[in-house]
Amino acid sequence: MNFPLTIAHTSDVHLHDGDDAAPVRAAFERVIDTVLAKRVDLFLIAGDLFDHTRIQGDVIDFVYRQLARVDCPTVLIAGNHDCWQERSVLQRMDFRRAGHHVLLLDEPDGAMVEFPELHATVWGRCMLDHAPSNKPMANAPARTRDLWHIGMAHGLYSEDDESDRSSIITAHEIEASGFDYLALGHVHVHRQIRHGHTVACYPGVPAAHLGTRAKGSMAIVVLEPGRRARVTDHILD
User: Fold this and answer.
1) Cα pseudo-dihedral 193, 1, 232, 77, rounded to 10
2) What whole-number distance in Å separates Cα of residue 210 and Cα of residue 141?
3) What CATH number is given to the structural domain containing 132?
4) CA distance 49 to 9
5) pLDDT category, 86, cuts 50, 70, 90?
6) Under DSSP, is residue 153 helix (H, G, I), strand (E, B) or coil?
7) Rounded distance, CA 38 to CA 153, Å?
8) What digits encode the pLDDT tens for the residues 140-154?
9) pTM, whole model, 2 decimals?
10) The 198-203 sheet, strands edge to edge
């Protein structure tokens, strides 16, 4: 039987260069502070950690320093702003500089990593291009043994399976996945979605000026045996 698991989930941080970068950096620091204060078991960054693909060294070094503070497994996927393109920021990074606890899921067809100490697996796909042909939930695997089944996807939720929007995530795909929790990114407001057994969530944005509220937010998720995932809309002070 699985034991309880606590997850911190963020997305759409949009770190960038320039004179106006300080508020976004401060917001990401508050995310890391929360990860530490909540003593979570797993930290998920569901795309758009960076605002564009041409990010330079000082921002990259800042990310290494912040992720090095984290004391639990940390998993990232690419988003539409930091797609996995030649010479893009994620291609140029070596997350081992932040520590071996940080993992980037960089397989276009999807990759799954198992954390035996957490009795959990995490799956996600690497985004190559934000286009109608991109299907963030394609190839989502079935549950592995009696482990927590966690997914990550960056795209737009739609109840219309025939939508021609880019990077669509459908209600049918969420229900069929069987994930205990699906960490979403792309939409800048906190939203929880339930289909079948699966609870999916957009966590909101850490930097308040990128969203619709006075303060930024992230999600804190608790998985307990026999219960649906419980998600808290955590406001960043």
Assistant:
1) -70
2) 33
3) 3.60.21.10
4) 12
5) confident
6) strand
7) 24
8) 999 988 999 999 999
9) 0.97
10) 111-115, 120-124, 148-154, 181-185, 198-203, 190-195
How many domains, in total, are found in the chain? Answer: 1
Tokens of 42: 């797993």
Q: Please provide residue 22's backbone torsions phi and psi, each rounded to the nearest 5 degrees.
A: -60, -45
| Paired tokens of 20 | 């106006």
Q: What is the dihedral of CA 130, 133, 137, 138, to 10 degrees?
A: -140
In whole angstroms, how far apart are CA 35 and each of 30, 57, 70? 9, 25, 7
Per the CB < 8 A criterion, the answer to whether 156 and 169 are in contact is: yes
From residue 97, alpha-carbon distances to 67, 68, 93, 107, 223 in Å are: 9, 8, 9, 20, 30
The helix/strand/coil state of 12 is coil
| Amino acid in the structure at residue 237 | D
18 is in which domain, residue-wise? 5-235
Total number of residues shown for the chain: 237
- pLDDT tens per residue, range 99-133: 999 999 999 999 999 999 999 999 999 999 999 99
Q: What is the DSSP letter of 83?
A: -
How far, CA to CA in Å, does 58 sit from each of 17, 55, 204? 8, 9, 25
**Is the confidence at residue 24, as pLDDT, over 60?**
yes
Cα–Cα distance for residue pair 231/12, rounded to 1 Å: 18
Of the candidates 124, 94, 126, 93, which has an alpha carbon nearest to the alpha carbon of residue 108?
Answer: 126
Predicted confidence band at 161 (pLDDT cuts at 50, 70, 90)? confident
Residue with tokens 């999807």: 110
